[in-house]
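Would you be willing to look carefully at the protein I have copied below?

:::
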Amino acid sequence: MTAITVRAPDSRKAMEELLRRLGPDALILSTRHVNGMVEISALPPDADPASLPPIPAPAATPAPAFIPKSDPASFAAALQASARRAAASAPAADPVETLSRSLLLPEGLAEDWPTRILIAGPPGAGKSMLAARIAARLMLAEPGIRPQVIAPVPATLLTEERLRGWCRLMGLTLERPGIAAAMALPDPSPATPQIIDLSDCPGDATALAARLTETPGAEVILCLPVGLHPARVERLCQDWRALAPTVTLTGLDQWWPERDELQAIARTGLKLTRIAAGTGLIDALSRPGAADLRTWASGWSAAVSEAAE
């Protein structure tokens, strides 16, 4: 059976294209970095897993939570092992495993932080705090990085200046350009990534995001609070789907997401890539995995809870 190969500027976009063409059950064969591009090869989900090449023997030391892209052999092996585990699942569908494959990125996929991040979402979702948390995460991960935190503003402010206070705690200055100036922002650089909070310009958020994602590798984050009605979740995801956003769920320290909320995200083809909990800026963001789904499933219906155990 013929393998499909996709290429993209980063691993997230390559995976998005692969999932679009082959679906979440594709059997990943290899991941390489070629001339600055990420190249992923995979077989359709109906391919015979026995025909895949052998998986390299595991290293003597435990693998990190995220395999760095600088080690393409281990990165490819992690993705291939994840695909084999999915292909070898029992015929009786595990609802949590099925949801995991459609909602989450494959285990072992490296975390990419683009140089321009735009944060959108409904009022009260925690967009400004998410912007501050991402800035703190970037500064801790790579000393020397000084993110530009930008919150475009129309003629009248709609929210209080909490983001300015959080920026001051980190030694950063919040930039407040008007809509026209925000449309013409200069391109970011790796040393000064841009984090753009669209909280104060809901009427212009879509147009701004469409314009600013013309920069290669830019990412839109759809920030959603846990506890929204599933119909509302699906509508918001559909409204932003054209810009291929990732989804971040906030407020997990208050309650866990329900199955219907997560299914609403998965139905639109978007991926849940981050979750946030607590009131602090440091160590508040994490990448969700299948283990998180099984923990949340303990509070769902009896049938799903039993499958998660």
